[in-house]
Specification:
The complex is a heterodimer of chains A (243) and B (91). Chain A contains 8 helices and no strands. By secondary structure, chain A is mainly alpha-helical. In chain A, helix 2 packs antiparallel against helix 3. Chain A is globular and about 60 Å long. The termini of chain A are far apart. Chain B contains 4 helices and no strands. The chains are: A mainly alpha (243), B mainly alpha (91).
Chain lengths: 243, 91
């Protein structure tokens, strides 16, 4: 077996710390990246599906450009995650086979509101939490591969979060629409936080800092901090919380 | 009570995002000295890489994303272990 038989081509750095891990830990982390590869591929499809609906709502060109970038970023992230799976597994890893990722239907019968809620959930909330979470993973990491992977993800996730805030600050979202969105904010926020709290069961309870994995308690704390310090102030800034 | 200065991601994500499209409609920051500017992290906050201080320093009026980035660059020393300074988040 090769030391680092990653799926070529790979920009992953050399990392002897992976070889030093137990087979069980390598398998656990490989399973994590397998799951992440699937998630990233789904998010790419979700942004792709959102794009024409945003266009139809008159979204700002800057927002649409960031959506286009997000589609490409998430595809690249998925491929990177598969490389990471292979690196930790020490064997070839197959990319996820994802054909579709249906967007949530809020059943409002109001397309402008539906699109706004999708942006709220997917970008403003989910990607903002993701950015804070990845930043935290990056900060605890010391293994070269983990530092590289989290940095690669984070620099793009920030843009994916920005697009939501940019959309709600734009002329494409009227104050009347914001008033309708406000009624949904608690539900959409709760749904996102609930999903985020479902920590990857493959990983050790205490985490594995060197490889960028938070412990269970830290995981929850980071989510709370993201909501408290980024999402809620952001919602207030763009007028999505009650005056 | 939330404190947006506690995370460098608030300016990096929210303020930067709003600045892409928000000038035309205000979005709650009718002027450059409005809420967006007043919530910009102070240099002291950001020097802690996360700004988890209770410092009440406020950014100058008229702060923009570029100004925030410059201030971060000036206040955050490079982190050799991470190859890039904490402020690389602001691009």
């Amino acid at each position: 077996m090769l030391a680092h038989p990653v799926n070529a081509p790979s920009d992953l750095p050399e990392d002897p710390t992976i070889d030093a891990l137990s087979p069980e830990l390598r398998a656990a982390i490989a399973a994590h990246w397998n799951h992440r590869a699937l998630s990233e591929a789904r998010v790419a499809l979700a942004f792709e599906a959102l794009r024409p609906r945003l266009t139809a709502q008159g979204a700002d060109a800057a927002v649409l450009a960031l959506v286009d970038k997000a589609v490409l970023d998430e595809r690249r992230h998925s491929a990177l995650c598969t490389q990471l799976e292979a690196r930790y597994r020490g064997a070839h890893a197959a990319p996820p086979d994802v054909q579709s990722a249906p967007l949530p239907d809020f059943a409002t019968g109001d397309e402008a509101l539906e699109v706004a809620l999708l942006v709220l959930g997917m970008s403003c909330i989910n990607e903002s939490i993701a950015s804070e979470w990845i930043r935290s993973c990056w900060r605890v990491a010391s293994a070269p591969t983990a530092i590289y992977a989290n940095r690669e993800h984070l620099q793009d996730e920030i843009d994916h979060a920005r697009l939501g805030w940019a959309h709600f600050a734009s002329a494409a979202v009227s104050s009347e629409l914001k008033a309708r969105v406000r009624l949904w904010v608690p539900r959409v926020l709760d749904a996102n936080v609930r999903e985020w709290r479902r920590r990857d069961a493959h990983l050790p309870e205490g985490g594995l800092h060197a490889h960028g994995h938070l412990g269970a308690t830290e995981h929850d704390e980071v989510i709370d901090a993201a909501v408290r310090d980024v999402v809620l102030p952001g919602l207030a800034l763009v007028g999505l919380t009650a005056p | 009570m939330s404190d947006p200065r506690r995370s460098p991601l608030f300016p990096a994500i929210v303020l930067a995002g709003v600045s892409l499209t928000g000038a035309a409609v205000g979005c709650g920051s009718e002027s450059t000295s409005g809420p967006a500017a007043s919530q910009t992290p102070s240099a002291k906050d950001k020097a802690t890489d996360g700004g988890a201080t209770e410092d009440d320093g406020a950014a100058p009026d008229g702060a923009t994303e570029e100004a925030v980035a410059e201030e971060l660059d000036a206040s955050c020393p490079p982190d050799a272990e991470r190859e890039t300074p904490p402020c690389w988040l602001i691009r």
